[in-house]
Specification:
Blueprint: E1 5-6, H1 13-30, H2 41-50, H3 55-76, E2 81-87, E3 90-97, H4 100-111, E4 118-121, E5 124-125, H5 131-151, E6 160-164, E7 167-174, H6 176-187, E8 194-201, H7 204-211
Parallel strand pairs: 3-4, 3-5, 7-8
Antiparallel strand pairs: 1-8, 2-3, 6-7
Keywords: Signal
Domain BON: 60-127, 136-203
Protein name: Transport-associated protein
Length: 219
Amino acid sequence: MTRPQHADRPAKSSRRALLLGLSAAIALPLLQGCFPVVATGVGAGAAMVSDRRTSGTYVEDEGIEWKVAARIRERLGDSVHVNVTSYNRNVLLTGEAPNETVRGQLDGIVAGVENVRGVINEVAIAPNSSLTARGNDTLITSNVKARMIDSGAVSAHNVKVVTEANVVFLLGIVPRSEADAAAEVARTSQGVRKVVRVFEYISDEEARRLDNPTGARRN
């Protein structure tokens, strides 16, 4: 897969207010631990259908996130703050570790989880971030997603946004044009100090094929 690249239109206030309001409502429970929230019910079904990953890979990614987070917690406890994001079975790690030795252990923990294809370790050597900082990152993520919707240049369904210490990581299976559009939206969003691309690139033709599958949903 492609390695990370360290690299306005007027807002529609009603949609952005809704997204930011939802973010504020869920921020506190999200900040209580490093485990990802798994979408369930109708919301998960809708997200799965619109996603460019196969339905099987979508479910695998959710499971990978839970397994990796649980093993990190079991092995390292509160000595680290690590967020785990799996996309198309490639695992992005963000957060903080106390030293390089502990940071290096994370790679082995992830590699030991079934179905993982690769690891992108972006964990910083630093003290664990504060709840205030994590809340700010959550709001930045929501703002970037809202601005993607407003821009009309890229579908928020096709780009996953993760923010850590004001750095925005972008994941997805996208053509270069979508990657550039998403990166520009993120780069020009308030509070963002850097954008890191963690995309898998495909052709425009392949993107159209994935967005308009014929027959049954891919498994």
